[in-house]
Amino acid sequence: MEQAEQSEGQQHPLGIYFKIWVMLFVVSGFSYMVDYVGFQGNLRWVLILTFMWLKASFIVAVFMHMRWERPAFIATILVPPICLGVLVFLMAIEAEYTFLTRLVTFVAEQVPMGHGAEH
Amino acid sequence: MANDVVATDDPAALPDGLPGVVADYSGDKEAFHIHWGKAMMWIFLLSDTFIFSCFLTGYMKVRMTTTVPWPNPSEVFALTLFGQSIPLILIAIMTFILITSSGTMALAVNYGYRKDRKTTALLLIATCVLGASFVGMQAFEWTKLIEEGVRPWGNPFGAAQFGSSFFMITGFHGLHVSAGVVYLAVTAWRVWTGFYDRKGSYATVEAAGLYWHFVDLVWVFIFAFFYLW
Predict the structure, then answer these.
(1) Looking at CA atoms only, how far is residue B212 from chain A in angstroms?
(2) Residue B8 at interface with chain A, using a CB cutoff of 8 Å
(3) Mean of the per-residue pLDDT values for chain B?
(4) Using an 8 Å Cβ cutoff, are B225 and B60 in contact?
(5) B117-147 and B89-113 are packed helices; what angle lies between their axes, rounded to 10 degrees?
């Protein structure tokens, strides 16, 4: 037990890095397969987002050593991005409104009978 | 005993969990028991997270609002190999290269803390080479798209916003990778010449590693939202 020499930085067995490395390859393969196989609709979204969050968590937790940091530091770094969720949510609502307005003002004008979305 | 001031910086002697958060923030001294270089790198990466998120959110908005059909990334980024058109293949290869480089970087940090100077430097150089090849492939991708007529203001495949989103998001990411290659090359040189041995700390290598993993992390989101949507 050489405590004095062990005190600096993050030291972990190599095994965990190789495990995460393999997992990242496997999950990336899966997300590529989503496109290759051609899943569509909600299933596609669920798969894409699941694989994305899995990969992101692996990288942040292990490669970036976040799971071994103290909770105060983890909170300082990982809590602020939550407000980005609010931004995405608001912009999505706004986008829906803009899209519908464009349909009404740009597309419907060109189609005399309305129902512009079909064309 | 209960009112004793916590006068230690040894993480093992500090309380864990929520009391740990309170103790750290109210400690009236350095809040974070972490190497300052790492803390500063994380703060920088947090700000970078907001920049990339703004780009991706902007992209989401223009894609959701356009009344013109969005070009199908699966077809736009397809490549003909061995007489067969394979969807997204170059992007898949780039993804795997970046993951591989993240792995070599993680190992470099680990060997750095073991004070294994040569292995650390070699792993850093391997990371650099993989990063440079990623940028090379991106240059190839850009050239191919520009030759096909994709411009920031329009393209032959569909919605005009496709070009501006593509060049801005992948361009900014590519800039990060390029800067990272230079950053890691400098770090590798310093490791090789024993700079961190004389300094007695390899924590700066971990800070460089954080930057590199972040570049990989951003690519995970770009891959999901730009190429797979």
Answers:
(1) 9
(2) no
(3) 91
(4) yes
(5) 160
Least confident range from A104-108, B32-36, B149-153, B223-227: namely A104-108
pLDDT reading at B57 higher than 80: yes
Q: Does the beta-carbon distance from B227 to A55 stay under 8 Å? A: no
Angstrom CA distances, B93 to A11, A15, B87, B133, B141, stand at: 31, 25, 12, 11, 12
Superfamily of domain B35-228: Cytochrome c oxidase, subunit III, four-helix bundle (1.20.120.80)
**Any A CB within 8 A of B15 CB:** no
What is the token pair recorded at A10?
């993050």
What residues of A are in contact with residue B61 (Cβ under 8 Å)? Answer: 91-92, 94-95, 98
Residue B7: phi and psi, rounded to 5, are -110, 50
How confident is residue B119, by pLDDT bands cut at 50, 70 and 90? Answer: very high
User: Residue B225's CB: how many other CB atoms inside 10 A?
Assistant: 19
